[in-house]
Each structure stands twice: as C-alpha cells, then as structure tokens.
C-alpha cells in the first residue's frame, strides 16, 4: 500500500513538473515581453535576497526588507536611487552584489540571456533572436509584422550581441583606466582605487549613479577631468547599443547611419546644450548650488547637471537646493531620458523627436512626417503618443500617492518620482526619508519605467490580433 502510494505521489509530481514546464515554455515563447518582465522580477527577487543577507551590510545585520527590495529594484533597473547611504551601509560583499546587478541590468535581461546562449551553443536560434531583438527594439514586443528597415535587422542580432558585450567591456575598462589616477590624486590609496575606478566606470556607463565614496562626488567637485570622463561614459551608455552598433560599422560615413541613429544623436546633443544653458540661466545666482562659484565652474557644473539629468544620476550639488524653476526644467530633461535600447530611462529621445517632427509636419500642412529623406510611418507616431500618455499617467499617479502619504512639498515629490520613473537617480533627499508604503510605490514606478510602457502594454495584450475590416470614418472635433 505504501509503495503504491509513493508511486502515485511520484507520478503526480512528474505530471506537475511537465505541466509547469509546458506552461513556462508557452509563457516564454508566446510573449517575449511577458518573459522579459518575468526575468526582471526574478532578478529583483534574487538580488533582494542577496542584499538582505547580514554579510551585505557593514553592520553585519539583516537589512530591512523594504530597503533591500528598493535597492535591488534600483540596481537591476539601473536607477541609482537608494533609501540607505550606499557608501556606508553596504559591505564589500554588498557593493559587489550591486556592481554585478547594475551590469546585468545595463545589458538588459533578454540581451544577457541571449549572450549566454550564444556563448554556450555558439549560435542563436530564431527564438533567441526574437527575444534579443525585443531588447534592441521595443516595437518588436507587439509581435506583429516588423519592418526590416528598423534599427537592427533580425539577421544582425548576433552581431549586435557581440557588439553589446565588446563595447561594454571596452568602454567600462577604458573609463576605469582613465579614472584610476584621478581617484588616487583625490586621496585614496592605490589599492582602493583598483575598486573605486571600475565601480564609477560601471555606474556611469550603465547610467546608474551609485557612488562608493563617502560624500558622493565631493572629493571630485573640482576635478574637471574626472567629471568629464563621467559625462562621456554616461553619454555612451545613454545613446543605446543599436547606435553604438551602427557607429561601429559606419563611423566615418554618416550618410549610411540609420534614421534612429541620426535622431538619437541630434536630439541628445540639442537637449544637452539646451539643458545646460537653461540651468545656467536659472541657477546663476543661487548660492545654494553654484551661484557663488567662478564663471568657469558655474558653466561646467550647469552642463554636468544637464548631462546627469538625462539618466546619469551623479551630482556634485544638492538637487534639493535648486530653485523650483530649475527643478521643473530638470524634471523635463529627466522625463525625456536617453536613447532607446540603452541603459537610460525616460520616454526616450527618439520619442520626443518623432513627436516634434509630427507637430512640425502638421504645422506645415504635410500629409506625412518626413526627415532625412525618410518617411516615419503612422504606427510609430501612435506608439510615441502612447508612450508619452502612459508615462505621464504613471508619473502623475505615483506623485499623487506619495504626496498624499508623505505630505512633502509637491516639487520635491515630483522631482524624485520622475527621477525614479526615468531611472535617473537624482534626489532632493526625499527618497531616503520615505515610509515603507511610499518606498514600495516608488519601487514599482522604477520597475515600470525601466521595463518600458511599450513592453508593459505588449505583456498585457500578449498577442497581436489582425482586424480584417474597417469601420466607418467620423471625425470628432479636436483642439
């Protein structure tokens, strides 16, 4: 009797295992966007467990769950916000966990999985290419027909993955070498610099913003070489791997750059200079920021802040000391963010470019949106509008909820919420004083900002349906 009962249990376990395996296979193959969310959630849970270990804190005590979870979300989603002091709270083990996490999050969950598959099997199957393509172009998440003139063709995914891995190693390695001696000159030992320089290199290229040094960038406030290297590293991380891939193939022939590359670079440069000028004008006389500095330092710090609001997250001033007008300007820059398929967040610069071109074409009375001898199809314009609408809704709801919970000034709440959604990492100081309910809300905001509204929408829809008929047209009054 006992033997038959054991056999029955074993048979039930096998059936349950097969059913779970079948469900997982269907879940991952039917919707790459759902699989991406599953991978992100799994990584967050793993890193929450690691950061909760007593060995992860300097006090060798268990970090509260809310703080460990928030740090894990901020790490995997390459944000840089923290409810604890990063430099003093985490032990060397905790810092290693964070260092590994930001590199995983910076590469992208599906890109990393595809890279591992490429290393192991030496080739990529169609399913792996489709998953990796979802990281390189979120529009593929919808599962419909994909125009092969988009950023990276499906047949080029393997080359893109190799570019991702190589560029990450080369850029972070080069940045670490360039930062090593400035770290030593700042007063740290040669041995400490062997860790601090690579740490800052990873945090800048992944656009995360965690700082391993006590006081953040205080030791490097006037080291313009160090800060300039950080800006360059943040810029390279924020333009996106598809752009790096295109530049690696056609660096000296701009005419052969894809439209995505041109729009990303041009919009990024425009926002950098426009943001720097606006912040310089608004903050010029503010004694709480750089109003008492000399002209050169004021100009440099204004442009440094402009670069960091695009998702870098580093700061040599207290963002809470900014005038409210400057906070609003910084919020606008943060909301836009960096390039698609990059380590930056926000609605992305190409989204802004498409919307601006659409408005310009409408003002000129053109029937289509055209730029650089190319026509942008209407479905891309609809996605751009949807991204902005969903993003604004998420930011608004999160701001309302956290403002209601904390009763903090609206400007500070809005600044930190947009910083979280756009995975920037700048804070007015509000994040470190949030109660647990507000911490969880901000963590969800970070997650939704990193995963992306396109991926979230595709995960909810799961499948793409083709409509074989058209309804009668009727035009409502707009405007």
UniProtKB/TrEMBL annotation:
One GO location term (cellular component): plasma membrane
Main location group: membrane
Example GO BP: metal ion transport
UniProt keyword annotation of Ligase present: no
A Gene Ontology molecular function term of the record: monoatomic cation transmembrane transporter activity
Regions that span the bilayer: 35-53, 96-120, 169-191, 224-247, 259-282, 335-360, 380-401, 438-462
UniProt KW Transmembrane keyword: yes
UniProt-listed InterPro entries: Cat_transpt
Membrane disposition: Multi-pass membrane protein
Subcellular location, record wording: Cell membrane
Keywords: Cell membrane, Ion transport, Membrane, Transmembrane, Transmembrane helix, Transport
PANTHER family in the cross-refs: KTR SYSTEM POTASSIUM UPTAKE PROTEIN B, TRK SYSTEM POTASSIUM UPTAKE PROTEIN TRKG-RELATED
UniProt protein name: Potassium transporter TrkG
């Amino acid at each position: 009797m006992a033997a038959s009962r054991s056999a029955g249990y074993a048979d039930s376990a096998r059936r349950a295992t097969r059913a779970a395996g079948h469900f997982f296979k269907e879940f991952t193959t039917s919707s790459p966007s759902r699989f991406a969310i599953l991978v992100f959630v799994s990584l967050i849970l793993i890193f929450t467990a690691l950061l909760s270990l007593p060995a992860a804190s300097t006090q060798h005590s268990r970090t509260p769950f809310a703080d460990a979870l928030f740090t894990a979300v901020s790490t995997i989603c390459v944000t840089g916000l923290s409810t604890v002091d990063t430099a003093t709270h985490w032990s060397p083990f905790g810092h290693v966990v964070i260092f590994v996490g930001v590199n995983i999050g910076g590469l992208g969950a599906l890109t990393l999985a595809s890279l591992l598959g490429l290393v192991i099997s030496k080739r990529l199957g169609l399913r792996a290419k489709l998953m990796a393509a979802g990281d390189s172009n979120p529009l593929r998440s919808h599962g419909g027909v994909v125009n092969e003139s988009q950023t990276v063709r499906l047949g080029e995914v393997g080359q893109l993955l190799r570019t991702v891995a190589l560029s990450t190693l080369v850029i972070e390695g080069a940045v670490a070498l360039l930062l090593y001696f400035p770290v030593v000159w700042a007063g740290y030992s040669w041995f400490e610099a062997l860790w601090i320089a690579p740490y800052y290199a990873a945090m800048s290229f992944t656009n995360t913003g965690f700082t391993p040094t006590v006081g953040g960038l205080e030791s490097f406030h006037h080291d313009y070489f160090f800060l300039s290297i950080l800006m360059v590293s943040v810029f390279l991380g924020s333009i996106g791997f598809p752009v790096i891939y295109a530049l690696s193939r056609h660096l000296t022939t701009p005419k052969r750059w894809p439209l995505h590359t041109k729009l990303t670079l041009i919009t990024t440069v425009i926002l950098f200079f426009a943001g720097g000028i606006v912040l310089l004008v608004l903050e010029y006389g503010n004694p709480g920021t750089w109003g008492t500095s000399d002209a050169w330092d004021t100009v440099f710090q204004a442009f440094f802040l402009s670069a960091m609001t695009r998702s870098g997250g580093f700061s040599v001033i207290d963002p809470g000391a900014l005038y409210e007008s400057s906070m609003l300007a910084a919020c606008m820059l943060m909301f836009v963010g960096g390039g698609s398929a990059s380590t930056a967040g926000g609605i992305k610069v190409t989204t802004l470019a498409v919307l601006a071109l659409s408005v310009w074409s409408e003002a000129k009375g053109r029937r289509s949106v055209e730029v650089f001898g190319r026509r942008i199809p209407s479905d891309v314009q609809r996605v751009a509008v949807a991204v902005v609408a969903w993003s604004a809704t998420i930011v608004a709801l999160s701001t309302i909820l956290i403002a209601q919970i904390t009763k903090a000034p609206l400007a500070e709440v809005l600044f930190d919420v947009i910083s979280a959604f756009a995975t920037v990492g700048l804070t007015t100081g509000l994040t470190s004083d949030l109660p647990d309910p507000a911490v969880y809300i901000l963590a969800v905001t970070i997650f939704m900002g990193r995963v992306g509204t396109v991926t979230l929408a595709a995960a909810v829809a799961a499948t793409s349906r083709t409509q074989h008929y058209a309804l009668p047209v009727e035009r409502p009054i707009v405007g």
